[in-house]
Amino acid sequence: MDRPHLDNALRAARERLLALRSPAGHWEGELSSSPLSTAIASWALAVVDRERKSAEFAGLVRGGLDWLADNQNEDGGWGDTVLSRSNISTTLLAWSAMAASDGRPEHARAVERAEAWLRRRVGGIEAERLARAVDERYGQDRTFSAPILTTCALAGRLGPSPEAWRHVMPLPFELAAFPHRWWRWLRLPVVSYALPALIAIGQVRFHFRPPRNPVARAWRRLARGRTLEILTSIQPKSGGFLEAAPLTSFVVMSLAAAGHARHEVVRRGAAFLAATVRPDGSWPIDTNLATWVTTLAVNALASGPDAAERLPAGDRRKILDWLLAQQYREEHPYTHAAPGGWAWTDLSGGVPDADDTAGALLALRRLGAGDPQVREAAARGATWLLDLQNRDGGVPTFCRGWGLLPFDRSGPDLTAHAVTAWTAWLPDLPPNVRARAEKAIRRALAHLARTQRPEGEWTPLWFGNQFAPTEENPTYGTSRVLAALAPLAARRGRPQVVRGGSQVVRGGSPDPPRDSAACGNTPRSPRDNTHTRGGSGEPPRTMVERGVRWLLAAQNWDGGWGGAPAAPSSIEETALAVDALARCLPYGPDLAAIRRAVGRGAGWLMARTEEGTRFDPAPIGFYFAKLWYFERLYPIIFTVAALERARSLDYTG
């Protein structure tokens, strides 16, 4: 590898990334088409037509089933993307959706192949076997297992009704009628974002198989109207809950089957599905990740010394104004999150969350730190993140303090991203916010020390790898944490932590005021987020050295990285590792080894991308409920950031 080749590859990758902006100047990206989304959206629209005795959506249903038949894996199952391995969830949903077929031979063949896959995977297609397989995959989290089995029941795959419904766990939808501040204390069997599914799935299960207990039966009958009102009030303007086809489809399907086929929620949800179908008949898992990919792109492009040439003042201003407009200024009607955060999308179904808020804060820093309006927005965003921090020092996704199920607990990648955002804005925050941020950073570092695994890696919440053990992605998690820790390791006066225990502040309470919770103003619980392993705090440099050793050992023979040691190399994971190692060069345990690894990784990227001109995505994105996706901008953005970082080292071989 030499400097001219590196410069050419970086220039080509930048040009590709800049060319993919929307007419408004920001990025929207493109999520992979999803067999799971396509299956459940097709079936939901078929149920609406069935219950209304119409054929309004017949064309969309047929198109979705045709796409599924064309994209069935060779083994007869379906995965979450066209690049994913077959899994029980998507295969069951696609098999169920085929019940809406109009008898086409290709659909019949798809059903036969799917049933053969299910027999090999779970031993048969009897209801008991299928229900047990789904429950084993999702455990105590009913967020996805109940909707999957509901789909199977409505499609007749679990036997005749009402007997089929004994395999569907009843969800206590009546609890949604309580004040939202009570939801966490009621220990709902779903994570914080899944209340629409709780209400809709709970109602359809009650409709077909009400409880024998007369008190419970009467109470749930009374709660139906009130919970439907709540569901109506939290439905976004677009009609799509979380802008997600799967969640929206589960709600539409369930309410329609429960006798509400003409209800406003069903009407708006079906319209959302009709509006988001792709020309080839498929649906993605979400409409777009516009805010997320825009902040990633800005932070990648603006990291080099000649950033002003790539993003001239006019372009920067357009992106800046767009990002400022995405900040929530009022309490969110769905999660009751306080004002100040950002969601992953600019559409109405988004929900403010930690990762996107941290990304937006960093992009604002790059685009206009001296602007008073930007500083005011940054102070609100930093405060929102501070209010979200859990008692364990980590940062969760949406709501503080639930912590009982995977996507509501603290995550090292989210925590590290928040640390980077707080650190970037620390000099310009108001004094009271700055004092809180300094304490929050110390607490977050203690959390990262406790969650670093014995070999030196961290695992993320929102990214995985289908080839890695337990489908985790420690390459992503470790790279993101190292990127946050590297600048802290460089400082002589690094934050102090107290060894042992989670309170890392010298005197006083480490917690922000109890009335400032970021999601529903929920007070903390002694049970908040106890999912970290025990351990003592460590200085950032010590954590960096251990993390670097792990990344060096995880590099593949070809020079790239996969999601874990020996997993096939991907553009995304290699770029993230190169970026992280280059940041840590002065603080790693072996400078020569780091330089060699960065050089080999950058060389692999240049070869794999054909010098910045070809970017094949990998399904490393981990959406709600173990649902994979890929995003076409990820490999481009991550490659630009990595090659920019390698170039800054003046690496020439």
Could you tell me how far the N terminus lies from the C terminus, measured between alpha carbons in angstroms? 6 Å
How many whole angstroms does the radius of gyration measure? 25 Å
CATH class type of the largest domain: Mainly Alpha
Number of distinct beta strands = 4
Return the structural class.
mainly alpha
Uncertain residue ranges: 492-518, 520-536
What is the residue-mean pLDDT, rounded to a whole number? 88
**What helical percentage do the residues reach?**
40-55%
> Helical region count?
23
> In the CATH classification, which architecture of the largest domain applies?
Alpha/alpha barrel
Q: What's the CATH topology label of the largest domain?
A: Glycosyltransferase
Shape: globular
What tags apply to this protein structure?
653 residues, mainly alpha, Glycosyltransferase, two-stranded antiparallel ribbon, two-stranded antiparallel sheet, globular
Q: What does this protein structure show overall?
A:
The structure is a single chain. The protein is mainly alpha-helical and 653 residues long. The protein has 2 domains: 374 residues, Glycosyltransferase (Alpha/alpha barrel); 249 residues, Glycosyltransferase. Helix content is 52%, strand content 2%. It has 23 helices and 4 strands. The strands form 2 sheets. The chain has a two-stranded antiparallel ribbon. Strands 3-4 form a two-stranded antiparallel sheet. A hairpin with a 3-residue loop joins strand 3 and strand 4. Helix 1 runs antiparallel to helix 23. The longest helix is centred in the middle third of the chain and has 21 residues. The protein is globular. The chain starts with a helix and ends in a 5-residue tail after the last helix. About 7% of the residues have low confidence.
